[in-house]
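User: Please predict the structure of the protein below. I'd like the answer in structure-token form so I can feed it into my own downstream comparison script.

Assistant: Understood. Taking the following sequence of 477 residues as input:
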Amino acid sequence: MDQITTQTFLLRSDVSDVVSGSYSVQSFQTQTPNPINFKTSDKTSMTGVFQMNADRSQLILAIPCTASDASFQNLRYKDNSILIRATRLPVPDQIHLTYGEDPQTSIVVSWATRTAAGSYVVYHQDQSNNSIRVHGTSRQYQTGEYQSWFLHRVAIANLLPNTKYTYRCGEEHNWSDRWHFTTAPGPSDEIQVTMFADINLGGSLGGSLGAWKNSTDCLYAMSQENSQFIFHSGDIAYCVGDQVCWDHHFQAMQPVAATQAYMTSMGNHDVFPEDIGYLQRLEMPKSQYSDPDYYYSFDVGAAHFLVYSTEIPFYRENATWVAQIEWMRQDLAKAQANRHVRPFIIALGHRPIYCSNAYQDCTNNVSSFLRTNLDPIFQQYGVDLSYSGHIHSMEQSWPLYNGKISGTYASPRGTVYVVNGAAGQPFLGPDIPSPAWSAWRGQYHGYSRVKISQKFLKFDFIALSGEIVSTFTLGNS
């Protein structure tokens, strides 16, 4: 965490996203470097802990308090801590990108504003001043007493492949900072993807402060990667029904997700106890027969990415699972026929199909249900890599079919199953005795780096220290 010298910061009620009503922080002054003495709008003197997140995009104030503190009765808190985040309003906030229908030629820009505002993106090709202005849509949703911010979405099409663009979003007098993105390259170009799962960026609203710190450290480490896009394999924010927590998540993700496509699959904590936060805020690309709320696919570089929902069997009618299975067969058949162009197929979901951990979903009927349904499909259509989260640790298998080793990494005849749900939450476990199919296991907080070319797929497990704690390379066979 940055060491902050003595400074004075000003916050108003319209820039403090957790504060509601009249209880807003008017001013406070840091000591060197902590704690902070400050006053609330009702002149109550308080002392808190000031922090700047790793990329210095958010000012965070953690305030010890109790439920009886009248000055903070309208603030959300847990574990006797409060997080106050500084944002600039009504300038667009929570900016994030997703791919459009064709990642080489389209991108979707999404953001939020507290008040109604225009939905425009102005962009231009890097090294060019020929700007193009595109109009989009905005909407709100309500659940219980929560009224969402205005959620904006602008789709940009007819872009050039593998080309860098600069953009800003908002409206006149309320533009965001300038950001940039690069469209996806073609199949002959090597790409890099950052993959992770089970991160907790909601602060004390989404879990423990320890998990929040691990998660912000992981986010900062991922921001240093030079990837084409990031993939979040479920358990997006651990908001457990708290919609303000979703606001915090997208605020934290903005430094990364505003510059590269942020692609996701839903996890169990995204649909229980409700799924409205996920479904309202994340819109993935739609293709033939897909249901982008739950399952979709896209192509980047030399790989086809198939994203599916492991949550449908547990909270949706059986017909939705049947429809997903049928879609998977159709989609994978096309991808298999196109291997001469894109030789690698990667499947991404939340709950693991193979894992060796004492946590219940590795030993009960959840993993066996997924193996029975998905293992034969992955084998039939030659899925090279299956990526999952859910288990808060790291594990890689040998190439497998039906629980047995099938080939080698250099010449696989089965699917390699990877679990990495270690982006911030406490570790699950302990491990059970290592089965023959498990090649490596580790308890590190971190993420994954995947490099893909026409000839190879290289997978690295990255710990928060930056160390590559395990790696393997799949050949194009």
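That's the full token string. DSSP finds eight helices and 31 strands in the chain.
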